[in-house]
């Protein structure tokens, strides 16, 4: 009997969609733990290096690294970290909205905007807007390596050191927990002054080779590690957001299937009732 | 025997942490042996080994591809680089990242992308349909 065959087809297609969304949900759920571990693993480096910069800045007051004082460049730089793939709810769009609002503020002050992007989604968004897309790196995968970020970060750092940029910001999703990710726009450069109170001023390091060289290297590594940290936070956020988005998609699919099943059953029942009444009335007529 | 706290970290993970009697590393200005209560020192490292001597006479070796070593009287920290770093390699990476952006801007391949995705989707749909039809026929 061909009652409601179109409903059956619909049910089948929703079911297969649900299969996909559940699979995606489970994949993200399994990856999120690893992403979180990576995030935590990179923290000691950042805190160590920060501490060292604090010491060095104090120890060699005669040499001020360019990253530590304001530049009066005509442009403002942004490093935007996004995901490579979609299907993660409003994670990227929320982030870009925040970034664009922040950029508008600078544009209204007459500054041009330079952007380097990490991840496909940011690249495809910002190439359509009125900003200069300077560099891009994507396909970092589930285990991002710092080595891959060196290029894009260097583009920004060089521009800042040459006095082209007045500020550099880092835009990414901060992973708070599985349910919450917060889009943030952090100022990378000039570095906010660090105050390290515990060390008295009466000592200094021995430097090999020169304080300036060491400080230069430290500064670059520090910025790179901050960007790397941002990439990891964003990765964890991506998996969390995708998990939640796919979970609700699966739930919606289940609801839809339930409703469709009900409609189908009703239609079938109606057809049977009609047939019986036809037979009965036919028998009565005989 | 007195010991000193040694931490070796890279941006990607913490590599080693523990009490050691000596840290041996190759700085840009030469080999270094750091014993407890060494004067505060900070140096760039060359690619090479970092060896730590343990209190029980054991020894552990790590390879670093450069980095920075910091000595405080009570601790040694090694900030290891995870990749081989040199100015020209960094420069090449920067140029590559720029080219990537230029490529993105040059070929406005939005439509092309869409067409490709649509073609893939159509193919997948056709496959699914064929499979489900096959299954139906088998049932009958």
From TrEMBL, chain A:
Membrane topology: Peripheral membrane protein
GO cellular component, one term: plasma membrane
GO molecular function: ATP binding; proton-transporting ATP synthase activity, rotational mechanism
Localization in the cell: Cell membrane; Membrane
UniProt-listed SUPFAM superfamilies: ATP synthase (F1-ATPase), gamma subunit (SSF52943)
Stored HAMAP family: ATP_synth_gamma_bact
Role, per record: Produces ATP from ADP in the presence of a proton gradient across the membrane. The gamma chain is believed to be important in regulating ATPase activity and the flow of protons through the CF(0) complex.
Family: Belongs to the ATPase gamma chain family.
Subunit structure: F-type ATPases have 2 components, CF(1) - the catalytic core - and CF(0) - the membrane proton channel. CF(1) has five subunits: alpha(3), beta(3), gamma(1), delta(1), epsilon(1). CF(0) has three main subunits: a, b and c.
Protein name: ATP synthase gamma chain
From TrEMBL, chain B:
GO molecular function terms attached to this record: ATP binding; proton-transporting ATP synthase activity, rotational mechanism
Superkingdom of origin organism: Bacteria
Membrane-topology descriptor: Peripheral membrane protein
Residue ranges of coiled coil: 94-127
Entry annotated with the keyword Electron transport: no
Key words of the record: ATP synthesis, Cell membrane, CF(1), Coiled coil, Hydrogen ion transport, Ion transport, Membrane, Transport
Residue intervals of the ATP synthase epsilon subunit C-terminal domain: 87-131
Cell compartment(s), UniProt: Cell membrane
Keyword flag Cell membrane: yes
Family stated for the protein in its record: Belongs to the ATPase epsilon chain family.
Matches recorded under NCBIfam families: ATP_synt_epsi, PRK00571.1-4
UniProt protein name: ATP synthase epsilon chain
Upper classification of the organism: Bacteria, Pseudomonadati, Pseudomonadota, Gammaproteobacteria, Lysobacterales
């Amino acid at each position: 009997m061909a009652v409601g065959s179109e409903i059956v087809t619909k049910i089948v297609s929703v079911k297969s969609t649900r299969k996909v969304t559940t699979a995606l949900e489970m994949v993200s759920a399994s990856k999120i733990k690893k992403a979180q571990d990576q995030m935590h693993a990179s923290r000691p480096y950042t805190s160590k290096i920060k501490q060292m910069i604090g010491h060095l800045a104090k120890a060699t007051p005669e040499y001020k690294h360019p990253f530590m004082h304001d530049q009066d460049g005509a442009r403002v730089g942004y490093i935007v970290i996004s995901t490579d793939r979609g299907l993660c709810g409003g994670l990227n769009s929320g982030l870009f909205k925040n970034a664009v609002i922040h950029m508008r503020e600078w544009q209204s002050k007459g500054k041009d905007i330079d952007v380097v992007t990490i991840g496909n989604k940011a690249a495809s968004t910002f190439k359509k807007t009125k900003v200069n897309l300077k560099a891009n790196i994507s396909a970092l995968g589930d285990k991002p390596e710092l080595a891959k970020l060196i290029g894009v970060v260097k583009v920004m750092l060089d521009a800042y050191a040459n006095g082209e940029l007045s500020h550099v910001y880092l835009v990414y999703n901060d992973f708070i927990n599985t349910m919450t990710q917060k889009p943030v726009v952090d100022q990378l450069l000039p570095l906010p002054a660090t105050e390290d109170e515990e060390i008295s001023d009466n000592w200094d390091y021995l430097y090999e080779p020169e304080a300036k060289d060491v400080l230069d290297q430290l500064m670059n590594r520090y910025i790179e590690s901050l960007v790397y940290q941002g990439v990891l936070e964003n990765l964890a956020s991506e998996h969390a957001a995708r998990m939640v988005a796919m979970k609700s998609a699966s739930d919606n699919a289940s609801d839809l299937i339930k409703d469709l099943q009900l409609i189908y059953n009703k239609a079938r029942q109606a057809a049977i009732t009609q047939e019986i009444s036809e037979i009965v009335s036919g028998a009565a007529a005989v | 025997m007195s010991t000193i706290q040694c931490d070796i970290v890279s941006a990607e993970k913490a590599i080693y942490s523990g009490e050691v009697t000596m840290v041996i590393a190759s700085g840009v200005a030469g080999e270094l042996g750091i014993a407890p209560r060494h004067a505060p020192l900070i140096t760039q490292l060359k690619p090479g080994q970092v060896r730590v001597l343990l209190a029980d006479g054991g020894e552990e070796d790590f390879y670093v591809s450069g980095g920075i070593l910091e000595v405080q009287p009570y601790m040694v920290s090694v900030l290891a680089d995870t990749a081989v770093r040199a100015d020209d390699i960094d420069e090449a990476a920067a140029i590559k990242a720029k080219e990537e952006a230029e490529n993105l801007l040059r070929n406005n391949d939005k439509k092309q992308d869409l067409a490709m995705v649509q073609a893939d989707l159509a193919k997948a749909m056709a496959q699914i349909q064929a499979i489900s039809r096959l299954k139906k026929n088998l049932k009958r």
